[in-house]
Design goal:
The chain is of the alpha+beta class. Helices cover 18% and strands 34% of the residues.
Length: 679
């Protein structure tokens, strides 16, 4: 039997607010230390050895996954100015091919970018942005070749296929063109990988100038444009505050104009339509409201007029403005609704959906003058569908449904919404799916997923790979816990800062509920979460290890206190608004009380698979590595503990679709094996 690696201990002592902490594995932060790389590789070798007997199961799962995806496929073309843009995939090739046709779908295909060609020779390759110029002659795109989310911009002549002499490094993914098609804006990263500067690049002569720079480390800088393409937006945002600048897209020398100065705790975004600004804001409206004002009077707050008022139970998550219609995406009781407003009459109606548990979202809608809304619909049992919806006639047209080549009958499965009760009385929604005919006797294996941070909603969508679990008798459940946005903005606020422990107790309540309802029992319950959801995994196994049989923690943010005490790390300063600044005593003690790494204790833990990325800019590789080392040295059981580090990838794991499927097969094989499946 292979023996697990044992990380050396080199005590690193710190003291804050009277709390003395000894960190034996602080040294694992030394990326350039050969001993660190040797330790990570030793853990990888141990993981490979301990999972060797599951290789046939991994291969079975991988073949199942492939049988359920259409390897050669085509996206629904998107029309813009008489051009039809789409992407396609080919069997055996990892990456998409971006294409277009002019005039009609019967025209000859032009390949814009074949990412498979660009990715040749790279272990990792990602296109972060790909923006076609307004005259449709040029393409600017960003490439990341190591998973660090640092992009290098290139420009391609679409008429000749040649690359121009543009090679701009250290950028984020955002790019916006001026209407002259000779100038574009991009964002530059600072020392902690924060997009902080906006640069205008002129293709004629390569002239560059900085048009904006944000010194406050709590604010990220992003670019966008209005649907009518008349304006370019510079959007500044922390987790609680935002600020917008706008530029005339027709003027390649335009200076950014401030819409409204930032005010702590006030978030807003703007959109332009027919001489008006529309403002979506949480000012005096925790779940947001929508206002409008003539462009020439935007500085006069008395001229702002409310269009969609605030509602306590419904959050306005976003809006799209067409010439004749407004589309509002509303979050109500954990589900997203699409409401259409006729701007000539101000009459509104909702698009009807029939399933109890579903997900929907706007798709690509670039044409301002269109009366057709393209949106996507899916559920835990319904493959993703793309619809065109005529906002005038209210006719809905199905354009494409996700194919499952191996076959899928939604009637073989059922999904439902359950509600758990948290310790403080809050009702926590759970979305759940399984094959029909399931016996509620506690014998079923169950995978419970959770995230719970940044106001991100875990909408219940279809996954063809998940069928490999469901068809083996699994119950799959999503705990829509506080910290996420599933029940609106108050739900988000109820799971952050000093209220962060609600996230963990909500998840535990969800686990207890599915057990009490007869869906599973602790010996049959697996849990999974990534990034902030990985923190969730670490917190709940410290709190209630007996409740779970096995855990998959993907790129887990578990060394919370140490990372938040180090402002030199990417994301730390901007994260103060989510977790709190531990330089302040109140937040130090709060984070110290739940930080998974700090709260590892001598007790039995479930079987655990921990996944990391060496180039991860969001959760540094050493967080899962340190956590694993401390768990191995501290826990009192003989349950399996594995650390798998991707040595050439970042936060999202493998970039190629086939490698990503193999990684998922590995994760599923771990869960299945720990729950007694031997195939």
């Amino acid at each position: 039997m292979p023996q697990p690696p044992v990380a050396a201990r080199h005590p690193h002592i710190t003291e804050h607010f009277g709390v003395r902490r000894v960190d034996d594995y602080f040294w694992l932060r030394q990326r350039d230390n050969p001993e660190v790389i040797a330790y990570l590789e030793a853990e990888n070798a141990y993981t490979e050895a301990m999972m060797a007997h599951t290789v046939p199961l991994q291969e079975t799962l991988y073949r199942e996954f492939l049988s359920r995806i259409k390897e050669t496929d085509l996206s629904v073309p998107v029309r813009r100015d008489g051009w039809y843009y789409y992407s396609r995939t080919e069997q055996g090739r990892d990456y998409p091919i971006f294409c277009r046709k002019h005039g009609s779908l019967e025209a000859a295909e032009e390949v814009i970018l074949d990412v498979n060609v660009l990715a040749t020779g790279h272990q990792y390759y990602d296109i972060g942005s790909a923006a076609v110029s307004p005259d449709h002659r040029l393409l600017v795109y960003g490439e990341d070749t190591d998973g660090s989310e640092t992009y290098r911009l290139r420009v391609k002549n679409l008429e000749t296929g040649e690359l121009l002499g543009v090679d701009i490094g250290n950028t984020a993914a955002d790019v916006e063109w001026c209407l002259d098609s000779r100038s574009f804006y991009y964002t530059v990263l600072d020392a902690v990988k924060r997009p902080y500067r906006v640069v205008r690049h002129r293709l004629d002569g390569g002239h560059e100038e900085t048009v904006f720079e944000e010194p406050d480390e709590a604010f990220f800088v992003r670019l966008g444009h209005s649907k009518d393409r008349r304006q370019i937006y510079i959007s500044l945002g922390s987790h609680v505050t935002s600020e917008e600048y706008f530029l005339d897209a027709a003027d390649p020398r335009a200076a950014p104009a401030l819409f409204r100065a930032r005010q702590h705790g006030v978030e807003y975004s703007i959109e332009h339509r027919e001489g008006e600004f529309w403002i979506l804001t949480n000012e005096d409206a925790v779940n947001f409201r929508l206002l409008r004002v003539p462009v020439e009077r935007y500085r006069d707050r008395t001229a702002w007029r409310e269009y969609i008022p605030h509602r306590a139970q419904t959050k306005i998550e976003g809006v799209e403005l067409f010439r004749d219609h407004l589309v509002a995406y509303l979050r109500d009781e954990g589900l997203l609704k699409i409401r259409i407003f006729d701007l000539a009459t101000d009459q509104a109606h909702d698009i009807a959906f029939e399933e109890e548990v579903y997900a929907t979202y706007g798709s690509e809608n670039p044409e301002y003058h269109s009366r057709v809304l393209r949106f996507a619909y899916t559920s835990l049992v319904t493959p993703r569908r793309i619809y065109d919806y005529d906002m005038g006639s209210r006719q809905k047209t199905l354009l494409k449904e996700q194919e499952v080549p191996a076959g899928h009958d939604p009637d073989d499965y059922e999904s439902r919404r359950l509600w758990a009760t948290a310790p403080d009385g809050a009702r926590v929604p759970i979305s759940l799916v399984h094959r029909k005919g399931l016996a509620l006797d506690g014998s079923n294996p169950c995978l419970l997923y959770g995230y719970g941070a940044y106001g991100i909603s875990m909408d219940p969508s279809f996954s063809p790979t998940r069928l490999s679990l469901l068809d083996r008798g699994f119950v799959y459940a999503i705990a829509h816990i506080r910290g996420g946005g599933d029940l609106g903005e108050p739900w988000k606020l109820g799971g952050k800062l000093l209220d962060k422990p609600n996230t963990f107790t909500d998840f535990i309540a969800a686990a207890e509920h599915v057990i009490a309802a007869g869906y599973t029992r602790p010996e049959r319950l697996a849990i999974m979460g990534g990034s902030a959801g990985g923190m969730l995994m670490g917190a709940v196994v410290n709190m209630r290890p007996e409740l779970f049989h096995c855990v998959v923690a993907q790129v887990p943010f578990v060394d919370v206190l140490n990372s938040m005490l180090d402002p030199s790390l990417p994301l730390t300063v901007i994260e103060y608004d989510e977790w709190g600044n531990p330089g302040e005593e109140e937040y130090f003690h709060a984070i110290h009380a739940y930080s998974p790494y700090d709260n590892v204790r001598p007790q039995h833990y479930p079987h655990m698979l921990i996944v990391a990325g060496l180039n991860d800019p969001r959760v540094q590789y050493w967080e899962p590595a340190k956590w694993c080392a401390k768990l191995r040295a501290t826990k009192t059981d003989n349950n399996l503990l594995l650390l798998k580090t991707h040595m050439g990838a970042g936060h999202g794991g493998a970039s190629g679709r086939y490698e990503a499927l193999k990684e998922l097969a590995f994760d599923y094989a771990f869960v299945l094996n720990r729950l007694g499946f031997r195939e």
